[in-house]
Design goal:
The chain contains 3 helices and 6 strands, in the order H-E-H-E-E-H-E-E-E. It is of the alpha+beta class.
Length: 156
């Protein structure tokens, strides 16, 4: 009869512990949501730059250096690339990469950018074969010989 009493208390303790565990789980979830930049997932992950640019139908230009590329994927996919390249080659690289795209210009550029290319409209789309729905390239001239390129290719 003593074993039966312990079984009841064990079952009672288990049932009483479940709400406490639920409260702990909820507290952890609230803290994670409050302190994370990406509480639902999809934070940036480093990827090879060839992968990031290929998503937008491009290749890393000759002479590129200081490369850093990431992907963020949750509901949509967003590849980003940042690199430096010879300033004199920027326009040729953009025209060669996107021959059917608009001419690089200064309209709709990010703040501080000296040149940009936007393939994000019905008239100017990402090239055939690219997985991205849109491509945005912003170029900032850092001196007479250097340009910093910020490339973004994403789905919408």
């Amino acid at each position: 009869m003593a074993a039966r009493g312990w079984a009841r208390w064990g079952l009672f303790a288990l049932i009483m512990a479940l709400p406490a565990l639920a409260v702990v789980w909820l507290a952890v979830a609230v803290v994670r949501f409050a302190t994370s930049d990406h509480p639902l997932g999809g934070g940036p992950e480093k990827v090879p730059c060839a992968e990031a640019l290929d998503f937008g139908g491009a290749k890393l230009p000759k002479g590129a250096y200081d490369t850093e590329c990431t992907v963020r994927a949750w509901m949509d996919t967003d590849y980003s690339a940042s690199f430096r390249m010879p300033r004199a080659s920027v326009r040729d690289w953009l025209k060669g990469t996107y021959p059917k795209g608009p001419a690089p210009g200064t309209e709709y550029c990010d703040e501080g950018a000296d040149l940009c290319l936007n393939l994000d409209s019905e008239e100017h789309r990402a090239p055939a074969g690219a997985d991205a729905d849109a491509v945005v390239v912003n170029v900032t001239y850092e001196g007479p010989d250097t340009a910093r390129v910020i490339f973004s290719a994403f789905t919408v």
